[in-house]
């Protein structure tokens, strides 16, 4: 093969020792299962080694398949989301699909515009991490029979596959841990209640610690956590432990505790949620509920692939286990 032209399907077939038609089937996600797994792997390796890039646009025009999936993320600056995206990409790539990633900043108008732009590029389906409990855009998507899966959050619509962490159990573990340390004045800095994560975690907290103070945060951000923690200590100054709606809210609470001349965990214990990257580098290192976010992304991609292969299959919800990770931000009550 000369180096002044792009490698062709013939080159790949020759390198793998197979017929051109076999190579074509192996490199197309829609027909890969027609080729023996070992042969398909050999062809894929040969294509990668030669630098062969299938012309998915031309194929898409012929077959109405683009092997592309739209991925909607609310905030890529939140360290929670890159592991989810990595899990999505890893699973999609294994199956010959490409992820087209957009960041919506949690803005409904921007999300709608990005969704339309991805549809115009003929993506085959969507993985959505932006879901709100009531979500007009996704309601329309269900009505138009667009294939999509939600990850990390769920939406109050029938027939939508979802991958979520077991938030109720995670919060229950957090409260039980604080109680085991002797805390009785426990408060919750809750996530936004228009998101399933905020609602489920609040409900679990109220079940585990009835009549305890709750302050709702306007967003899952450090700034919102600071505002809510300031409000909490103004009205419930005797609080000795906080369960935060997520790690960024916990970070805001730590800043307020310090600003008020108190210390964590000596005066106030704090538990976060998600175990986002670098939570172990907080000062003090954050006790938090670990959710397997890479696995969440991979499972979300898997559910969408299943839905694309069999659009009539029943919608599944995958519940991933949550695990309390104890570090330095919790200690026995004084």
UniProtKB/TrEMBL annotation:
CDD domains: HTH_LacI, PBP1_LacI_sugar_binding-like. This is LacI family transcriptional regulator. Keywords: DNA-binding, Transcription, Transcription regulation. Gene3D superfamilies: 3.40.50.2300, lambda repressor-like DNA-binding domains (1.10.260.40). Pfam families: LacI, Peripla_BP_3. Residues 7-63 form the HTH lacI-type domain. PROSITE patterns: HTH_LACI_2. It comes from Actinacidiphila oryziradicis. It comes from the Bacteria. GO terms for molecular function: DNA-binding transcription factor activity; transcription cis-regulatory region binding. SUPFAM superfamilies: lambda repressor-like DNA-binding domains (SSF47413), Periplasmic binding protein-like I (SSF53822).
């Amino acid at each position: 093969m000369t180096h002044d032209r792009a490698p062709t399907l013939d080159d790949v077939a020759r390198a793998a020792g197979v017929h051109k038609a076999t190579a074509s089937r192996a490199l197309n996600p829609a027909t890969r299962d027609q080729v023996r797994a070992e042969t398909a792997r050999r062809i894929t390796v040969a294509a990668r080694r030669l630098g062969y890039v299938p012309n998915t646009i031309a194929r898409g025009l012929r077959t109405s398949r683009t092997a592309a999936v739209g991925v909607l993320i609310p905030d890529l600056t939140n360290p929670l989301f890159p592991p989810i995206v990595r899990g999505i990409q890893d699973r999609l790539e294994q199956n010959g699909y490409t992820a087209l990633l957009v960041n919506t900043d949690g803005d409904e108008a921007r999300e709608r515009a990005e969704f339309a732009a991805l549809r115009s590029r003929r993506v085959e389906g969507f993985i959505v991490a932006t879901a709100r409990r009531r979500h007009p855009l996704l309601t329309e998507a269900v009505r138009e029979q667009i294939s999509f899966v939600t990850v990390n959050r769920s939406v109050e619509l029938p027939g939508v596959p979802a991958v979520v962490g077991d938030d109720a159990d995670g919060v229950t573990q957090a409260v039980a841990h604080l109680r085991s340390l002797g805390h009785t004045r426990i408060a919750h800095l809750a996530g936004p209640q228009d998101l399933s994560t905020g609602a489920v975690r609040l409900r679990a907290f109220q079940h585990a610690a009835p009549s305890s103070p709750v302050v709702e945060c306007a967003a899952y951000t450090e700034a919102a956590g600071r505002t809510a923690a300031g409000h909490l200590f103004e009205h419930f100054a005797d609080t000795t432990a906080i369960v935060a709606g997520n790690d960024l809210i916990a970070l805001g609470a730590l800043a307020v505790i310090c600003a008020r001349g108190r210390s964590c965990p000596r005066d106030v214990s704090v538990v976060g949620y998600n175990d986002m990257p670098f939570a172990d580098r907080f000062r003090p290192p954050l006790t938090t509920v670990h959710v397997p976010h890479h696995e969440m992304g991979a499972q979300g991609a898997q559910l969408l692939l299943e839905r694309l292969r069999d659009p009539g299959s029943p919608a599944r919800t995958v519940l991933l286990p949550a695990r309390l990770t104890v570090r330095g931000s919790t200690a026995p009550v004084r």
